[in-house]
Amino acid sequence: MTSTTAPTVTLPHGAEMPRLGLGTWPMDDAAAETTVAAAIELGYRLVDTAENYGNERGVGRGLKASGVPREELFVTTKFNKRWHGVELAAEAFERGADRLGLEYIDLLLIHWPNPQQDRYVEAFQGLVRLLEAGRLRAIGTSNFKPAHLDRVIAETGVVPDVNQIQLSPTVTRESARAYHTQHGIVTQSWSPIGGSSNDVLREPVVVDVAERHGRTPAQVVLRWHMELGLTTIPKSSDPERLAQNLDIFDFTLSTDEVAAISALDQGDAAGADSDAFGH
């Protein structure tokens, strides 16, 4: 099978990040090790994990087993609310890097803002220090709303490289995307095809577009993310689907097709509310 690699986007602090990578939730260590190695062999160069997934060790073993030089890989992980503090974020980095078996992490994210705890600004200050020390190539947030990002930027003077948010044709996050664009933040979509139910893939408009292009519905949805200028991390452990998910860079959708898929939006209320949920 011919391997494909995703094009990259230049992040605000200069790192080059693939626009499509491998998500690893909810794999365990064993599945992550096998899947990460297989994905890298297919051409994946971005791998996304998190403390809360409980699979960083498996991801790290998969990275090593791939045999691809470390500098050719882009590794993202995230830390939980117990590490929201300047020094605590440094400890979160050390623990995550140790579990992954890496000396540096490409992108470290605050997994949820947890505004009730109100320490996410301090957590980001810790990330800024790690970036300045060269332990990270990029820093960011996950599930942050524009109001959370406003505080981070105002109080630290630093813009996150990435905000990773739940985003799919049924949760298009138009206002968040506009905010990110305004501030130069790269949007990364998690649950890009709408979660485990796969209802989006059965939508007539998605099926019709897929038939028109001779592609799978999942490929069309992932291409929709690309057309919107997003980055994304679809999860699969199936070798065929892994290959299909990466094979979306040789066709395009028309403006009308993108609009028709975007019309499936059910509003922000259809997604997770990071003012109410977090860990």
What does this structure look like?
The chain is an alpha/beta fold. The protein is 40% helix and 15% strand. It has helices spanning 29-42, 56-66, 86-100, 120-132, 146-156, 174-183, 204-213, 217-227, 239-246, 255-262; strands spanning 8-10, 16-18, 22-23, 46-48, 74-79, 105-110, 136-142, 162-166, 186-190, 231-232.
How is the topology of this model organized?
Blueprint: E1 8-10, E2 16-18, E3 22-23, H1 29-42, E4 46-48, H2 56-66, E5 74-79, H3 86-100, E6 105-110, H4 120-132, E7 136-142, H5 146-156, E8 162-166, H6 174-183, E9 186-190, H7 204-213, H8 217-227, E10 231-232, H9 239-246, H10 255-262
Parallel strand pairs: 3-4, 4-5, 5-6, 6-7, 7-8, 8-9, 9-10
Antiparallel strand pairs: 1-2
Helix pairs in contact: 1-2, 1-9, 2-3, 3-4, 4-5, 7-8
Summarize this structure briefly.
This protein is an alpha/beta fold and 279 residues long. Helices cover 40% and strands 15% of the residues.
Unreliable spans: none
Count the DSSP helices.
Answer: 10
pLDDT averaged residue by residue: 96
In the sheet with the most strands, the strands line up as 3-4-5-6-7-8-9-10
The rounded Rg comes to 18 Å
Largest sheet: 8 strands, parallel
Q: Approximately what portion of the residues adopt beta-strand conformation?
A: 15-25%
Question: What oligomerization state is this entry in?
Answer: single chain
Q: Level of helix content?
A: 25-40%
The H/E string reads EEEHEHEHEHEHEHEHHEHH
The end-to-end span amounts to 40 Å
Counting helices, strands and paired strands, the structural category is alpha/beta
Which term fits the overall shape? globular
Q: How many strand elements?
A: 10
